[in-house]
Amino acid sequence: MDLLEFVLTTTYFSFRGNNNQQKFGTAMGSPVPPIDANLFMEHLEQQAIASAPVQCAQKIWKRYVDDTLAIIKRGMVQDLTDHLYTMDDSGSITFTYEEETDGSIPLLDALIVRKDDGSVKVLVYRKNTHTDQYLHFESHHRLHHKLGVITTRHE
User: What is the DSSP string of 72-115?
Assistant: First the structure.
């Protein structure tokens, strides 16, 4: 735990020629923050699911890091969100949600569409704010991230 705390609290970066120490959050590009976020979210969701009010029972609960798809009774989204807030003692998390609209809901870069026969179709989803701008090749990102942008297909 001491080593993890050291890694998470000693992040330095250079900006406009000045060296700085990051005071809040974790370093982008570091392999540690996703692991830390996953551990925190797993702990939080285990508590939240086990103690959720009966009317907020989930038919499905799927999570990727901090994005969750939950299927619950219609009209219970705010109740579940309020319950989640009671699980976070730090007060540093903001929970947001989107509800199904016209049989579809976005999750990450996917649009999940519920079909009339009960099956689902998954489409590529881009937010209204999507700019089609990607990593500049001379940026300080890892080479495999930049190459991934070039080789990724989107339809």
Answer: --TT-HHHHHHHHHHH-SS----------BTTEEEETTEEEEE-
CA distance 128 to 52: 33
Q: Compute the distance between CA of residue 55 and CA of residue 69 in angstroms, rounded to an integer.
A: 17
Q: Where are the domains of the chain?
A: 2-151
Both tokens of 137, joined, read 């090749």
State the number of CA atoms in the 13 A half-sphere of 73 facing the CB: 10
pTM here?
0.67
Distance from the first to the final alpha carbon of the chain: 44
The 3-state DSSP composition of the chain as helix, strand, coil percent (nearest 5) reads: 35, 20, 45
3-state secondary structure of 52: coil
Full pLDDT tens readout for the chain, 155 residues: 898 878 777 888 888 999 988 877 777 667 888 888 888 889 888 999 999 999 998 888 998 888 899 999 989 999 999 999 998 887 878 888 888 999 999 998 899 999 999 899 999 888 888 777 777 888 888 888 888 776 665 55
